[in-house]
Design brief:
The structure holds 2 protein chains of 2 kinds. In chain A, about 0% of the residues lie in helices and about 55% in strands. By secondary structure, chain A is an all-beta fold. Classes of the chains: A mainly beta, B mainly beta. Chains A and B meet through strand 9 of A and strand 9 and strand 10 of B.
């Protein structure tokens, strides 16, 4: 199965800062079949990005995704207070669909 | 508004089975694959399998093969996930989730989650 490795494990930042999160796949995702989610405690994950770079319905444009092959990035241009959460990447190139272990973005 | 409503939390003994339900609308039931995922404390989600409800066609992740069964009931627009031979490592929140669109297995719509605790 495809293993997704996210880095860093935790980021401590302040509101207004820019953040970039990394997701590396153990093999190439040929059609950029990668999604990003945000999760807050006690909630289901929220879909942010699919197809590596397409924003899901209702997602603010401060969230952007990029990458191809094995290396993907989620960027948040200016952190808002509601953006402090855990972020996961998910591949849907080859079943079983797999998720990374997450990057926690917390407030400095 | 897409709704996925799951059954309540469960406490199970090691070696037993658990069956969780996820009820949705007829439109969702007829048109989309429904997936089961789980999330252990402090870990990322883990995909367990999915079903095309109207065809009763289920696919399972290899690591759960032989231990998981996903079924569908058209009369109530409900899908079920049964997991057997439970151990403490199966303690997790279990979610159902709908494919974003046809053959697009990323997940915008989720149930509220069902906590399964396995403890002697």
């Amino acid at each position: 199965e495809i293993v997704l490795t996210q880095s860093p494990g935790t980021l401590s930042l302040s509101p207004g800062e820019r953040v970039t999160l990394s997701c590396r796949a153990s093999q190439s995702l040929h059609s950029g079949y990668l999604a990003w989610y945000q999760q807050k405690p006690g909630q289901a994950p929220r879909l942010l990005i699919y197809g590596a770079s397409k924003r899901a319905t209702g997602i603010p444009d401060r969230f952007s995704g990029s990458g191809s092959g094995t290396d993907f990035t989620l960027a948040i241009s200016r952190l808002e207070p509601e953006d402090f959460a855990v972020y996961y990447c998910q591949q849907y190139d080859t079943p079983p669909w797999t998720f990374g272990q997450g990057t926690k973005v917390d407030m400095k | 508004q897409v709704q996925l409503v799951q059954s309540a939390s469960e406490v199970k003994k090691p070696g037993s089975s658990v069956k969780i339900s996820c009820t949705t609308s007829g439109d969702t039931f007829r048109s989309f694959s429904l997936n089961w995922l789980r999330q252990a404390p402090g870990q990322g989600p883990e995909w367990m399998g999915d079903i095309v409800p109207i065809f009763h066609l289920a696919n399972y992740a290899q690591r759960f093969q032989g231990r998981v069964s996903i079924t569908a009931d058209e009369s109530t627009s409900t899908v079920y996930m049964e997991l057997s031979s439970l151990t403490s490592e199966d303690t997790a929140v279990y979610f159902c989730a709908r494919d974003y669109t046809v053959k697009a297995p990323y997940f915008q719509f989720w149930g509220q989650g069902t906590l399964v605790t396995v403890s002697s």
